[in-house]
What we know:
Elements: E1 5-8, H1 17-25, E2 29-32, E3 47-52, H2 59-63, E4 70-73, H3 83-89, E5 92-94, H4 101-116, H5 119-127, E6 147-151, H6 155-164, E7 170-174, E8 186-187, H7 190-196, E9 199-202, H8 216-220, E10 226-230, H9 239-248, E11 251-255, E12 275-277, H10 286-306
Parallel strand pairs: 1-2, 1-3, 3-4, 4-5, 6-7, 6-9, 7-8, 9-10, 10-11, 11-12
Helix pairs in contact: 1-10, 4-6
Amino acid sequence: MTRPLIIFTDRTDLDQEPARRILEDAGFATLSIDLPGSGLPEAAREAVGLIVGYARVDAAVLDRLPNLRIVTTTSAGFDMVDSAELTRRGIWLSPLPDAATEEVAAHALTLLLAAERHLPAALATTAAGGWTAQLPGPLPRRLSTLTLGLYGCGRIARRLARIAGPLLGRVIAHDPYLESYPAGVDGVEPSRLLAESDILSLHLPLTEQTRGLLGARELAALRPGALLINVSRGELVEESALLAALDSGGLRAALDVTAQEPPAAAHPLRSHPRALLTPHTAFASEGSLEHYLCEPARTLVTWSREGAPPYSVTPGPGGARN
Length: 322
């Protein structure tokens, strides 16, 4: 009897072997390709499931996969997959909601503290042989006087609120999908979120509705001297508007993502004096890297045994949703 086929759509920096062993021990065959470069081999027609990293999975790809029943991703974001097309075809889409909640929240807090305590400038002072008298101004703001605003209030934002809240004066949030907010977080409308945030941290998926959500008008609505933190998706912010706001002196930014990755070597965000940029590493830890590929493999095993994945964002066959 032929073993059902699972395809890894792209080879990333993650080690596929542990996930491959999980799948093969459960009775699957596996195949690694690199979309779009290598294309889909003829054998791919037999695939029942995909594990997707960064590869684009659209209608043209799906047309070549007539037996496909489920798509999993190695990230919480799933903007690389045409979810509407999967819904139309009755194919499950199961992203990875909780692989690096702790890591990304900790990274957001690290960026917040580094920016608010002017850590890069202080380190540059000591590296150049200076000390207290040579510290550049202005002075750091007192954290307990600041309001942290969360745009989106899912798992990562909630974890950030728990670990950063005790340091700050107030935490507010807006999430269009929530009717109530966790203890210690005040829900507000978007206009108030922008107007009242000293620090605005983005925790939203990238969709057609959220792409370019923060443009020149929204950035101008932030408080003077506000700090923008983005550990979600670079495309949530209009980058030209962000650079203009940084150049004006009215905004600072602490980012782990950019609109195009990697950014060009001469990209102004790499060296802007009012920006901190880390190389999309918020997700990384020894524990999270194992989780990123092994959990999608476990999801596929659960789907094969129970008929549905434990979590999905599209209805599967017959309109069911988990």
